[in-house]
Amino acid sequence: MSASGEYLMFYRSFGGPKMTVSIDCFKRGMRQLASGVSVVTSRFEDNLAGMTVTAVASLSAEPPKLLVCLNRAGQTFDMVRQSRIMCVNILSAEQTELAAAFARSSENKFAGCDWDIAKTGAPIIREAAVSFDCRIDNIIDAGTHGIVIGEILDIIIAEEANCLVYKNGQYGTLMMKTG
Ligand SMILES: Cc1cc2nc3c(=O)[nH]c(=O)nc-3n(C[C@H](O)[C@H](O)[C@H](O)COP(=O)(O)O)c2cc1C
């Protein structure tokens, strides 16, 4: 056996690396990750729910799917699980107040915003840069959060919208490099 193989066996016999990352360190690291800001909405019977999220990713083009990571303790997660529909609204640069409102826990988050009903029945936020209307394909439990996979049934794209960005606790917009 090679020296590195011996070392690997020794290393494994002690159970591999110890987890030493603190929550505070995790948060400080993640604050450096600049992300687009979205509001995930859902509707079940006459009730609406929605929350601000940055954890959104494209999953596949064929079939068109995306994923969002939602806290399982929140009202929106509960409604998405029940209704099996959601709309992922990528916010435009002018929608900072909306992002802040949908990040608070409140009974009536939709009062200050204009919305329409998407094909699935979920609320589409007007003037969002783009809205992805989804049927829920799968929900994977991941500790405090659920990884929600949506199959995209419709896409509503605004003309030339600049997107809202979040980094280090602050909202901003992108300035693209030219040349
Ligand atoms: C900029 C920003 C991004 C956020 N991203 C997420 C996210 O990706 N996933 C999540 O579960 N919560 C996220 N949150 C927290 C939720 O928006 C917040 O807990 C919300 O009040 C949940 O609403 P609900 O309980 O009505 O569903 C974010 C908050 C902010 C301000």
Description:
The chain is an alpha+beta fold and 179 residues long. It has a single domain, classed as Electron Transport, Fmn-binding Protein, Chain A (Pnp Oxidase, Chain A), CATH 2.30.110.10. Helices cover 20% and strands 42% of the residues. The protein contains four helices and twelve strands. The strands form three sheets. A seven-stranded antiparallel β-sheet has the order 3-2-6-9-10-5-4. The protein is globular and about 55 Å long. It starts with a helix and ends in a 6-residue tail after the last strand. 28% of the residues are buried. Bound molecules: flavin mononucleotide. Flavin mononucleotide binds next to strand 3, strand 5 and helix 3.
Query: Strands across the major sheet, in which order?
Result: 3-2-6-9-10-5-4
Structural classification: alpha+beta
Integer count of domains: 1
Question: Count of DSSP E strands?
Answer: 12
Overall geometry: globular
- Rg is 20 Å
Biggest sheet layout: 7 strands, antiparallel
| Helix content bin | 10-25%
What is the CATH superfamily label?
Electron Transport, Fmn-binding Protein, Chain A
CATH architecture: Roll
